[in-house]
Amino acid sequence: MGMGNAGVGECNPGKERGVLQYNKRAYYDFLSKGEEPNIHIPAKPIYIHVDKDALKRIFQNLIKNYLNHGTGSISISVKEEGNQVSISFKNYAPGIDRAETEKLFKRFYTGDQSRTKKTTGLGLSIVKNLVAKMNGEIEANVEGSFLIINITFLMVYN
Questions:
Q1: 125 with 74: CB under 8 angstroms?
Q2: Torsion angles phi and psi, residue 157, rounded to 5
Q3: What homologous superfamily is domain 4-156 in, according to CATH?
Q4: What is the pLDDT of residues 81-100, one digit of tens each?
């Protein structure tokens, strides 16, 4: 993996350096579903030492997972927490419970028991492996009827 510093959420017009900038096309995917993501990013850039392509894949897989399985709105936030950056994806997910969140990152797991959606159950497993390879952490939690997937990486100070 080619590791380098990536700006998380950096949104400077004309520059494609910020992680959220990599996924501009996904914004239109949200709109096609009738949703507009609620995105919270800090005003100043936050840098992490990661493989940019892997981080792009992480975002793509999490967004695709929401588009395939999510309902209601999604909130994506980036924030500093001490010497770490926290990237959270939160969406309405009625019916999901703590027991199911423990299975989400297992290979081939799909919560769609009726198999009406053609998914492989690999997307979140790939996310977990990529996060681990970049020395990050990932966890899934349920708060009320909301699923929260939180990723943390150590910050790089420029």
A1: no
A2: -100, 120
A3: Histidine kinase-like ATPase, C-terminal domain (3.30.565.10)
A4: 999 999 999 988 887 777 77
